[in-house]
């Protein structure tokens, strides 16, 4: 029997069960509720504490979150690299971005003191973190450290 994983839709937040075989085949699923693609090659935008808690707490795939701010030069420099890494890592991991100015309570909860900071979560728990701007290949290697 094919193992399934729970994936939070980045558009509507609903929970979706997707068979591992479908993810590995490249035949990527759409959300059962809003019908948007569950993976579109772009990091998910975590616009609120509720978005963050749902994505981190319910998604069974590793989730790599980029904590950033619009005024941060290194954050802006890393943004296209993070985007490129999302295209390479999906659907085996979810990449997401959290603006620390827009959702300061999450940044405070995780003690974010410098940005950009990436935190890798697995099944709702922080398993690794790294501060500083990275290129695409370093982001991919960091995200793959979950396995």
From TrEMBL:
Cite the Pfam families for this sequence: Thioredoxin, Zn_ribbon_Thio2
Transmembrane stretches in the record are none
Entry keyword annotation includes Disulfide bond? yes
Superkingdom of the source species: Bacteria
GO CC term (a single one): cytosol
List GO BP terms, alphabetically. Answer: cell redox homeostasis
Instruction: Indicate whether Hydrolase appears among the record's keywords.
Output: no
Task: State the InterPro entries in the record.
Answer: Thio2_N, Thioredoxin, Thioredoxin-like_sf, Thioredoxin_CS, Thioredoxin_domain
Q: Which CDD domains match?
A: TRX_family
Descriptive protein name: Thioredoxin
Name the source organism. Answer: Methylocystis parvus
**Source organism lineage?**
Bacteria, Pseudomonadati, Pseudomonadota, Alphaproteobacteria, Hyphomicrobiales
């Amino acid at each position: 029997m094919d193992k399934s994983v729970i994936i939070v839709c980045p558009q509507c937040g609903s929970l979706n069960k997707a068979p591992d075989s479908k993810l590995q085949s490249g035949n990527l699923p759409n959300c059962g509720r809003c019908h948007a693609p569950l993976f579109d090659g772009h990091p998910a935008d975590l616009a609120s504490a509720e978005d963050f808690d749902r994505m981190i707490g319910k998604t069974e795939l590793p989730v790599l979150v980029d904590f950033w701010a619009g005024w941060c030069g290194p954050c802006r420099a890393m943004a296209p690299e993070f985007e490129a890494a999302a295209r390479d890592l999906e659907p085996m991991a979810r990449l997401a971005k959290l603006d620390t100015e827009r959702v300061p309570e999450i940044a405070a909860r995780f003690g974010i003191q410098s940005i950009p900071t990436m935190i890798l979560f697995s099944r709702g728990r922080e398993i690794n973190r790294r501060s500083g701007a990275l290129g695409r290949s370093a982001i991919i290697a960091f995200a793959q450290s979950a396995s």
